[in-house]
Records
---
Amino acid sequence: MSDEQLKSHRDAIDALDVEILQLLNKRAGHARSIGELKGGGLVYRPEREAQVLARVKQLNNGPLTDESIAKLFREIMSACLSIERPLTIAYLGPEGTFSQSAAIKHFGHAAVTLACASIDEAFRVVEARSADYVVAPVENSTEGAVGRTLDLMVSTPLKVCGEVVLRIHHHLLRREANFEGIRRVYSHAQSLSQCHEWLNKNLPVEVERISVSSNAEAARLASLDTSCAAIAGDAAAERFGMLKLAENIEDEPNNTTRFLALGYHETTASGRDKTSLVMSAQNKPGAVHQLLSPLAEHGVSMTKFESRPSRTGLWEYVFFVDIEGHAAELPVLKTLEALRERAAFVKVLGAYPVAVI
């Protein structure tokens, strides 16, 4: 390609950049006007954002991928939303955890992320209105449900308003650029389990595996001692200046964690939604079958069924259920009415858009 041809393309890009900048500020101006019309009320509408992301993906003709387009528009919406009022998102810290990555993926980089020492604390700061939303892990594709998050959702007044699906890539991190002299490996217990086979094959049996509160904490500890390594993700590696001795060491290549965003408001239907609920069966024969039959009666599909000890009595359980559709839509509404008649306890945890990116 000649210099003249290169200049032609670069001049075109410069002109497009000016146009994009003008359009972005024009969009931001409309966002600010909407905020003024709301008078300081609710600024974040997850159903509206889900509709925008679904629409731009449908309109996309490339060469950018649908996922790239959706991520770009997520950041545009995040920046425009911050003009009205920056959101504060609580998550399980410290900085560099997958929970923080999930919060940023869902709310964008313009949101303020607030690291908390535990999932319990992350819920509490939102319940006390010291933060707007909490993003918490609810299940992993290989390790199953995150019990503490499920337990907290039974009693919290917060409502689920969104979900985030995050591909989990684990790396072996160290300050030194080699494997020699590693005596300990730090990581969260689930991450150690998710990389169990790789560790067995690639590290000596005498290397101690130590479980800590988070992968980011593992990276922090390993950054202080050259005899230690950590299993953590990209964000933790960047945060603590660690080198990647090995990348993507998870045993399951499709390792994915699902997170939920919870806050004080309920969402309206977006067109592609889920409803999450928790319930308990009456103590009689066939009670669980009776709980599930209203879904078939009203043509509602169930995407998750998880049992969990109720903590109220020996051998008593509650059931966490995800169903397709919004709680305000007629089939789901009728299903919930039937469940309330048959179940000993029913709580709708929230109705929210299905993750778009």
Note: The chain has four domains: 3-83, 86-168+256-263, 171-246, 273-353.
---
Amino acid sequence: MDTVTAPTIVITGASDGIGAAAARLLRAALPDSRLVLVGRNPGKTAAIAAETGAEHHVADYARLDEVRDLAATLRGLERIDVLANNAGSMFDGPIRTADGFELTWQVNQLAPYLLTNLLLPTLLSSRASVVATSSVASAFLSRFDPTDPETQRNFSPARAYGNSKLGNVLFTRELHTRYHARGLNTVAFHPGVIATNFGAETSGVIHYGYQTAIARMFRPAPDGGRNLAYFVAGVPGIHWESGSYYNDRRRPGIQKRAGRDPELAARVFEDTADALGVSWE
């Protein structure tokens, strides 16, 4: 992040939960920053933007045309110092979107991948940081098959979510490999088990845990927001190392072998580019 000029910070998934909490914290800590908030819910996104004095945009990641429209708008920014890819959720399924992809994989992995790709020239010229809200599910719930990254076979909401969060980690690592030498910094982190609206669009154990009284035992949204704000405001090389994944205590997080596999990271990166029909510099 540029330490001379006030930073421009883009946060997706900012209408509620962790993203909204981080926006409040960052406004207090960096009052001169240019905050740009993105959310799916127009009313909630506008309310958080008004509260924090931020700009805001609405995009539904279940529609990739809305991601492309969002990117076209954000390319109008002179610079982007931090792109926080925070939007994500868990869904029943498998559900095929209008774009032809499984919904969980599209919302959690394809949409932030596409947004980052379309903003790459701005991110490189800004020597930006790309921060990904991943999850410990990337290690404990994933059973990743690179021939079926969307989890169309043997689908369960938990496994699909874990695979998509592993996708975030692999994307973070490969972005670092390809672009760190050109000034881009990347990091993924687990925010903690946070009491939010997560799991509202699925059924089963995860839904039960997040949407019932059990959630009272979870950490409040500001705790996860503090972790997101920490990585957004932190200085790469001092507060965190580029290309890494951290747990909710801001320490190197546990990963299966797949999460540390550079060949798998490169394969998933290229396969995703082919699926979306995009190229990288």
Note: The chain has one domain: 8-275.
---
Amino acid sequence: MKKSLLALIVIAPLTLGLTGCVIAVGGEDGHSISGDFEDREYKNRKKIAGIQLNTAFADVSREMGVADFTETYLKDGKTVNVVYYRTHRLHKDGLTTKDECTKLVFVNNSLTAIEQAG
């Protein structure tokens, strides 16, 4: 009985000191979702700022990577490729929408326009 009481007296204060709440905000690498988006948005804006009109679609794709959205269609006998890259945040929902992207328009594989939505 004395050993049980002694153990309780020693262990109880130690366990009370170990209780508490832990709130994990970021991922495994310490980044939060919004931080990841902000990093990607900044990098995309920086890359897009360095792209010149008339650059080939393949060169832009190689520099930018996979687009968030892609559209391809024919207009007046010409192939039009429209790619969207996330560059800014409008909604705090963690999703990427076209109005949060910059649109790059290619006609016959040549960049003809860069348009920021939103």
Note: Residues 8 and 15 are 10 Å apart (CA to CA).
---
Amino acid sequence: MEVPMLQGFKNFLMRGNVVDLAVAVVIGGAFGQVVNSLVADVLTPLVGALGGVPDFSALKLGPIALGKFINALLNFVVVAAAIYFVVVVPMQAVQRRLKKEEAPAAPPEPPEEVRLLREILEELRKKA
């Protein structure tokens, strides 16, 4: 005999959405590490080389850690751009392509009774 609460938990885990969400979280974490490395190890030194300061985290305006904010802002912009160009744009292209392939089908021909009723209606309108 199985406990109903455990059966509900098992059903919850076996739904496809939970597995998809788990995969998305794992992939998102790995993607976040790649983007953080890109920002910290590639973009920040490039931008810092232009301004003479390769590490923004040391920038402070009094007690305010302005450099950490600049790093976080740069990280956000890179993540948003990557998601847009790697996920959103290709998905929109696929959706447009699928929409074009789904040509609007011609409406099905009405049954014989409906056609006869329409013909009768036309004849009655002509006589009126």
Note: The chain has a mean pLDDT of 81.
